[in-house]
Amino acid sequence: MPGRRCLSSLASAKPFLKKEEKNPITNLLAPSIILATIIFLAFGSTLIQIFNNLTHAFSQIVAIGEKSTVSLTYGLLLLTIVAALIFMSIRILQSISLSKFKIVKLADKDTAVLSDGKKYYGFKAFLVTSPSKSSQNSSTSLSSNNINNFLKALQRKGVPITYVALTVPISENYTHQQMINSLLLATWSKDNHEEEAVNKVKLFAEQVEAIAYATLSGLILKRLKGSSLLKISYMPVSILPTSRELFHEIRQVALGLDFGELISFDVPAPSASREAPYDLFSPPKGLDPLGVSIGWYIGGGRTSAVKIPLSDFDKHVVIVGATGSGKSTTAITLSILLRKLGIDVLILDWHGEHRESVLKNGGVVYTPGGSLYPIAINPLDASPSVNINEHIETITNMFTEIFSFTPAQSFMFREALKNAYASSFERPPTISDLVQHIGLMPIRSSWDHETKMALLRRLKILTEGTAGEAMNKQSSIPITHLLSGFVSIELSHINDLTARQILASFILRSLYVIRSKNPPSRLQHVTVIEEAKNLMPSNAQISGQVVIEHLINEMRKFGECIVIVTQSPATISKDIIRNAGIKIIHALRSGEDIRVIRDSLSLTEEQLQILPKLQVGEAIVSYPSSPTPTIVKIRSLKDL
Questions:
Q1: What domain range includes position 524?
Q2: Exposed/middle/buried for 574, CB within 10 Å: 0-12, 13-18, 19+?
Q3: Residue 267 domain-assigned?
Q4: Quick one: 52 and 186 in the same domain?
Q5: Angle formed by the axes of helices 194-215 and 591-600, to 10°?
Q6: Is residue 566 within 8 Å of 531, Cβ to Cβ?
Q7: pLDDT digits over 136-160, tens only?
Q8: Which of 252, 312, 356, 518 has the highest Cβ tally under 10 A?
């Protein structure tokens, strides 16, 4: 039929069942023995008689030759019947095995959930397409190298993947003999719990997209959704039958899908993975004996030490990397190395993961809202040298950004804050004082009442629980004490996210006030901000967010370096990344994250392709003293 789609090639980069699981033949062995035993017990005498007849028939062949034609026919007929019974038994067992897998539901429109009665399977499928008809040419077509690089990267990351190559005539009237092709691929996960299976397959899908972005340049990777996904959601399970059956099943599924614009490629077979082409990176030029020895250059088949001069820390530092890539280890390693060079370090530890390393290296860990070394920091506390009106404006902007105040709410907050400071003579006002003054604000309309109630609801969380213990008190320690030595503030003891944001923002503001009193100087202090997306998001449109970015850019003049740590560069301000002096890029799996790095760092397309392939602790590092980015294995904590 003209225009009929057909299956041109089918391959699997990794089987659906893990290696430690039994294969289909092993799964069928025990049931087959049981079935054979039942058949023998039920029809034993008949089978023995058949065997005797066969033996007699063949003996007649030998004995009397041509006269045994009838016996031979009888024997062959019996053999055919026995073979048919065995084949039907195997097919029944296979169908029973397949029937165990059921589609449970469709989650998030692009995730199918299956179950075999014991475990849950998350399943996602993708289709590779070209952007437009004009892209069906050599510049955008897939090649064996493209596909091989794509599959090797997935294998290296341990992503289970099944792919199907489909072909269709370009013209329905067959005037052209050239065939264009499409790549249909799927990934899956398995877990005892449905939610975990879905979460795991989402991570696999992110890796597929990131690697496809790096290796399949110019093409589109589209997630299948809804009915299209459900049509092929049993595909990994169908690997259990014979290859011929799989061929027909996948072919029937493929005929029901709308593949849109297809592309040309040579279908490869999966092959062994190779090392990432690290020789694309040049070694660092020269070594500063007084620099920060962060690790070793690992490109070009050799290793050499990488030291970043202290002068390169005049601007802020950005450390990015997906979960598990080693970015947090790099942050604490860098902190310890700087401290050993006599630089004071403060860590805003969002998850409480650096306690052991800080204490081991002579530091101190404070826990606002916690029970071990608790401290209280009043965000309304203004330094005596600070202009009170500027302080009120800064606090208003900070709260407005974090709580997303409306203009009316922001105005009422500012007026109540002015009244709170005016009423406090011997001590700074607390958040409870501010809440009280908001309650005293006059009500002139229903809008005023709604504005007041909204403010009171949002601020109440800062007066109770761990947030109240951390911030709704007078400061128990001067901010200057936090800026000396090696200090970590564990924000994880404060349960409310907005309370953490307010406390961290206030510390940065106080840090700026203290540093701005000093004349411009070389590096004196480093502040490490974990989970920076909570303080400087990518959509910084409100004054409070702009203030934080301004503080970071300005503090470098006064000997302060800010180290910004985030798992996704796409979630923080692009200006922060672009203006960073030192960039440490661990493995990234999101296509959007890779695009952000491409726009802010001078990397070739070949170098960008390495980002999803980086191993734990490996990073692409860029710093002012090195003319080009280099690839580094970051020192482990054991080496310090």
A1: 311-375+478-640
A2: middle
A3: no
A4: no
A5: 40
A6: yes
A7: 444 445 555 666 677 777 776 778 8
A8: 312
* Dist. CA 212–CA 590, nearest whole Å: 10
Residue 276 contacts residue 614 (beta carbons within 8 Å): yes
pTM above 0.85, yes or no: no
CB-based burial, 32-55: b 16+ in 10 Å, e otherwise: eeebeeeeeeeeeeeeeebeeebe
Q: Name residues whose C-beta falls within 8 Å of residue 241's C-beta, 6 or more positions apart in sequence.
A: 24, 94, 98, 249
* 251 in any annotated domain: yes
Domain boundary among 72, 98, 124: 98
**CA 190, CA 115: separation in Å to the nearest integer?**
9
Residues 227 and 364 in one domain: no
Residue 324: DSSP 8-state: T
Burial of 133 (0-12, 13-18, 19+ CB in 10 A): exposed
Measured distance CA(88)–CA(103) in Å, rounded: 26
Quick one: tokens of 121?
């399977």
Q: Are residues 347 and 491 in the same domain?
A: yes
CA 433, distance to chain mean position in Å, is 43
Encode pLDDT of 374-428 as tens digits. Answer: 999 999 998 777 888 988 998 998 898 888 899 999 999 999 999 999 998 789 9
Give domain status of residue 273, yes or no: no
Predicted confidence (pLDDT) per residue in 304-358, tens digit: 789 999 999 988 999 999 999 999 999 999 999 999 999 999 999 999 999 999 9
Give me the CATH number covering residue 498: 3.40.50.300
Q: Among the three residues 442, 476, 510, which one is the final residue of a domain in this structure?
A: 476
